[in-house]
Recover the amino acids of this structure.
């Protein structure tokens, strides 16, 4: 007799019940919705924004069922996709590029499912539509900036030691020219004494004539790039969170890159404006009127046109040293911004300010911008440029450390904007876009429909074939196949894996492998029967003999899937995820679920004659 | 049913040799038609309300400097694919095309737009190759551990065979080789392996069976006959799903499912012909199976 013990049956079916419950959220239709993220838009401050939006929609005759405002973003829910798309058109022209509009869907998962952690599968950008950016640290520009500022401070240090020197810098090195050999050797002594960081040597120092050339060591360069990427990751994450788009992805990829994915967002230009606002900050002392032009630089104020200030060339700290910034009010109720720096930043700030109380400290906002313009023949031309503006130039009241504040701001709006820029606008190193992708909502839906349809058609064909070829055994295999799909869906939903188009293809492949496992088993049973083994034993032997083959085949494929996941990116990862999950569940269903059904059909009675 | 597979083997090897020859020549002289993912460039899918005027689009975007766009229909008359492949540094992006089209008043709905900078493509190419090689190495180690090194050679030879022939198909027919095809190729590695292991497993079982007498060739032939029905049925059912994907999956999945379908066919074929060929050539005998692993005297088989 072929019987599973009660606990075995209980275990198999409780796994299936678990699968059904967690796959369930995917079957409740979700409602089309629009999410509006205000970012640092002026209109976000307006608490009546919900009224403004709903009256705008009503005026243009767009129906919606619900509108909510929370955490600097608004959500509007619609009855059908037509209204959703119409609303997007209306709201985009109302927004005028000022806020980010994301199309998404509001799941209608029942409360009891939600409470046990049930949720629908995350759809990848190719299925849900949205924007994908890949940003890369601009190492050349980053080191050029650092070298230029370090060059200036080395010259300063040397001059306090009565050594006269000039410097020039490129993106690879600082070149310091001394007047004579004496100056050079004392300069070299000073540099050698200070040429180290916590992890080793900072510069390779080369000497030619009366010049010293300072290059970053490879070790130090890779260290600062690594640090910059980590810092930028945090900054970008903050920035994306300030946007309030749901389910965004911001993660590091490889050595110097960061991926940003915004599901549902369509307006690439304004998303780029806010995400890609590659802004950085520089804190510099205001130059003394007597300083030579070699040591100072002129900057315009950001908010008041036509006014400008002279600041020193030496950068005390940059935005990557800012750990936090909050707007608040001082004792007499005037707006202010509280700033926190990291330890390195605090030390530099203290050194720079302790002897300069009473002078002003300028904060410079460095922005990367792209200009699009048309020439006389209507050709579109583009160029990128850097814009540097002073956003604050306040008097130093006392030596500053890791925590200080900027006061004397004109309004609480200005304070909160400055805080936001300090907090989110601070990128440790300049970044550039190396990949951008926008996928429209209809294309995504089209991909889902086509992928889903072909999987369903493929399944039906396989079902029919298995039923014709293997009859009752085929029926058991089909049930196992359906269980496999349910389990894959459940696990993907539960662990929050993302389903992509190649992912659907991965599922198709596991279907093939699951069928293979059952075919192997049935072929073995049939061989046993041909060798005149008694029916119940034939079934038993068939399963046990096929077992090791199935395990070997699946383990090697699983190894491939794991390698793909760890080496691959984007679409390859999506494929590897479903393949890995599918392989594990298919071994379970093809062996145990099929066995339990076969036991149920044949195991409890005497059978004289059986054909497979 | 007893098919003399071993007798057919020479015939099979001849076909494989011809195919591999064509593949190598085509890869060497023609190369692969690499997709945007691997070369870098700009691509847009734009949909119009009615039949798209390709000439008008071409005229409009020809004004963009430093570019050489290809404009063609994609899927239907209303949909257009605008593509510019470049492995040099890009000075423009997809937005430039959108701006230019809208300046000339002929912009439809942008269904998809992509800008990929060339160095990314180059890295992806390397990454894909590394992925396949690492996968093969790990598999080899696993098979040596579980079976015997000769089976490892067989499985790896079959893998190389399958991957090369699919690359050959993509090269000869000038099909676009993009990231999704790379994913398919990696799936073929998995599938081909599955087949090789099922066959190897059966061979091992027969060689280990004390009651089975006969020469290595007879045992190999018996093993192939035993798994043949399974190979056909599995390939057939997997092909059913893949054909559904090919027919109904849309443009995005076309080359992907094509590569996989070809891989399933070639993979089944190679498990029967290539794996066995390697086992014959390395002289697999019952003696090899006696002490399956971790024996020092085993090492001379490496020669």
């Amino acid at each position: 007799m072929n019987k599973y013990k009660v606990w075995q049956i209980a275990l198999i079916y409780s796994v299936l019940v678990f699968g059904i419950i967690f796959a369930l959220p995917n079957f409740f239709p979700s409602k089309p919705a629009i999410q509006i993220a205000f970012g640092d838009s002026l209109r976000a401050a307006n608490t009546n924004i919900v009224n403004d939006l709903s009256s705008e929609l009503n005026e243009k005759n767009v129906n919606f069922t619900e509108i909510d405002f929370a955490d600097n973003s608004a959500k509007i829910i619609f009855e059908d996709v037509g209204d959703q798309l119409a609303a997007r058109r209306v709201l985009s022209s109302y927004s005028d590029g000022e806020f980010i509009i994301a199309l998404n869907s509001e799941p209608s998962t029942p409360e009891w499912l939600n409470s046990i952690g049930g949720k629908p599968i995350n759809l990848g950008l190719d299925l849900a539509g949205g924007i994908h950016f890949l940003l890369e640290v601009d190492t050349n520009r980053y080191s050029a900036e650092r070298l230029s500022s370090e060059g200036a401070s080395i010259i300063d240090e040397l001059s306090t030691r009565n050594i006269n020197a000039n410097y020039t810098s490129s993106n690879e090195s600082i070149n310091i020219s001394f007047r004579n050999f004496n100056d050079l050797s004392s300069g070299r002594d000073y540099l050698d004494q200070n040429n180290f960081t916590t992890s080793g040597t900072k510069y390779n120092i080369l000497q030619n004539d009366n010049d010293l050339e300072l290059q970053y060591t490879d070790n130090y360069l890779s260290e600062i790039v690594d640090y910059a990427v980590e810092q930028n990751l945090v900054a970008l994450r903050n920035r994306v969170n300030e946007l309030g788009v749901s389910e965004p992805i911001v993660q590091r990829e490889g050595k110097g890159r960061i991926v940003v994915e915004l599901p549902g967002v369509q307006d690439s230009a304004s998303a780029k404006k806010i995400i890609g606002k590659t802004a950085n900050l520089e804190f510099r002392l205001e130059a003394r009127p007597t300083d030579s032009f070699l040591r100072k630089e002129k900057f315009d104020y950001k908010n008041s046109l036509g006014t400008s200030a002279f600041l020193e060339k030496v950068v005390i700290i940059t935005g990557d040293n800012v750990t936090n910034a909050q707007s608040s009010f001082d004792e007499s109720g005037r707006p202010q911004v509280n700033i926190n720096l990291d330890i390195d930043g605090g030390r530099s700030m203290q050194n720079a300010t302790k002897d300069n109380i009473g002078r002003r400290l300028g904060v410079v906002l460095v922005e990367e911008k792209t200009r699009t313009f048309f020439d006389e023949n209507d050709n579109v031309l583009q160029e990128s440029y850097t814009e540097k503006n002073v956003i604050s130039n306040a008097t130093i009241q006392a030596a500053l450390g890791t925590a200080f504040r900027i006061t004397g701001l004109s309004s609480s709006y200005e304070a909160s904007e400055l805080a936001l820029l300090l907090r989110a606008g601070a990128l440790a190193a300049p970044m550039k876009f190396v990949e951008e992708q926008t996928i429209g909502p209809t294309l995504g839906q089209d991909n889902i429909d086509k992928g889903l349809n072909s999987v369903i058609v493929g399944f039906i064909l396989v079902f029919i074939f298995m039923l014709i070829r293997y009859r009752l055994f085929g029926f058991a295999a089909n049930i196992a196949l359906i269980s496999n799909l349910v389990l894959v869906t459940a696990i993907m939903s539960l662990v929050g894996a993302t389903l992509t188009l190649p992912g659907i293809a991965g599922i198709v492949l596991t279907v093939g492998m699951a069928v293979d496992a059952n075919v192997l088993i049935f072929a073995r049973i049939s061989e046993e029967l041909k060798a005149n083994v008694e029916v119940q034993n034939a079934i038993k032997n068939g399963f046990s003999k096929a077992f090791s083959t199935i395990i070997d085949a699946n383990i090697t494929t699983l190894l491939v899937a794991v390698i793909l996941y760890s080496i691959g990116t984007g679409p390859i990862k999506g494929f590897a995820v479903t393949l890995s999950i599918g392989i594990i569940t298919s071994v379970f269903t093809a062996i145990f679920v099929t066995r339990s059904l076969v036991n149920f059909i044949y195991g409890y009675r005497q059978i004289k004659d059986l054909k497979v | 049913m007893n098919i003399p597979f071993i007798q057919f083997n020479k015939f099979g090897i001849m076909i494989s040799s011809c195919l591999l020859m064509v593949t190598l020549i085509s890869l060497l002289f023609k190369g692969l038609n690499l997709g945007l993912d691997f070369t870098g460039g700009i691509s847009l899918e734009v949909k119009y309300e009615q039949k798209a005027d390709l000439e008008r689009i071409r005229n409009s975007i020809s004004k963009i400097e430093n570019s050489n766009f290809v404009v063609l229909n994609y899927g239907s008359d209303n949909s257009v694919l605008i593509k510019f492949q470049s492995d040099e540094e890009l000075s423009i992006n997809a937005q430039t095309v959108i701006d230019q089209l809208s300046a000339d008043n002929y912009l439809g709905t942008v269904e998809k737009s992509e800008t990929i900078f060339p160095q990314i493509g180059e890295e992806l190419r390397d990454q894909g190759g590394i992925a396949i090689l690492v996968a093969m190495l790990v598999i080899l180690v696993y098979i040596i551990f579980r079976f015997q090194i000769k089976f490892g050679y067989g499985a790896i030879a079959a893998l190389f065979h399958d991957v090369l022939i699919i690359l050959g198909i993509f090269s000869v027919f000038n099909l676009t080789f993009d990231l999704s095809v790379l994913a398919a190729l990696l799936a073929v590695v998995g599938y081909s392996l599955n087949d090789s292991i099922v066959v190897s497993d059966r061979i091992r079982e027969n060689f280990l069976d004390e009651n089975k007498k006969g020469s290595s060739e007879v045992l190999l032939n018996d093993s192939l006959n035993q798994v043949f029905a399974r190979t056909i049925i599995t390939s057939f059912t997997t092909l059913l799903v893949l054909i559904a994907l090919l027919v109904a999956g849309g443009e995005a999945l076309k080359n992907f499912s094509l590569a996989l379908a070809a891989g399933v066919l070639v993979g089944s074929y190679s498990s029967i012909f290539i794996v066995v060929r390697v086992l014959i050539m390395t002289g697999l005998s019952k003696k090899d199976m006696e002490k399956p692993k971790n024996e020092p005297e085993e090492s001379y088989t490496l020669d």
